[in-house]
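Hi R.,

Here's the input for the S-adenosylmethionine complex you asked about:
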Amino acid sequence: MFDRVAARYDLANDVLSLGQDRAWRREVVEAVRPRAGQLILDLAAGTGTSSEPFLHSGASVIPTDLSFGMLLVGKQRRPDMSFVAADALKLPYADASFHAVTISFGLRNVEDTTAALNEMRRVIKPGGTLVICEFSTPTWRPFRTLYSNYLVAALPRIATLVSSSPAAYEYLAESIQAWPDQQGLATMIEECGWQDVEWRNLSGGIVALHRARA
Ligand SMILES: C[S@@+](CC[C@H](N)C(=O)[O-])C[C@H]1O[C@@H](n2cnc3c(N)ncnc32)[C@H](O)[C@@H]1O
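And here is the predicted structure with S-adenosylmethionine in place:
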């Protein structure tokens, strides 16, 4: 599916999120608090849009993704970045390799969330930081209803105008609605052995940033 959306993925993101995605990505970098010399894994990095904001932090970022289509578009647009093709469930990295692991709008798409959280814990150094940026549940009920209508009715229609694979955006709406809310995801993270799990809502809870320590 991601191979088919790759060509116009970044454009579709900007349009469908009304430009909000750029602010969300800056928040991810702030939550990771990268330092010079650190090694950061950006998992499910797609075309590298979520990895790019780390480039000026002094840390090295390794964008890793399963979709060759996304990686090819990424490599064409961002030739200086070291893209790696790999499955989040079976990473080609040694134990305790990274100072931080981040995954933006990717965990929802991985087949086995718990297995992915465990694999991320394997490759992070003790005390390292995990940051998950993912769609979540708006906290104010009237806004939640409005947003739910947007997901079901408007988003797939707008996607037909801007995406190379509009059907993928029907899946997006369904997968967001099926995804656990803020507390639900925090519990899953804790159950995988992560410490100090906390979250922060962005854009009223459309997106939540979960942070934890290995
Ligand atoms: C919505 S995109 C997010 C891309 C990027 N992180 C961003 O914020 O723009 C989701 C990505 O998850 C990747 N993905 C899905 N399952 C995966 C897996 N098991 N291992 C690695 N990447 C996976 C897809 O290939 C896709 O590029």
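One thing worth noting: Strands lie at 39-43, 60-65, 84-85, 98-104, 124-135, 195-202, 207-213.

Cheers,
M.
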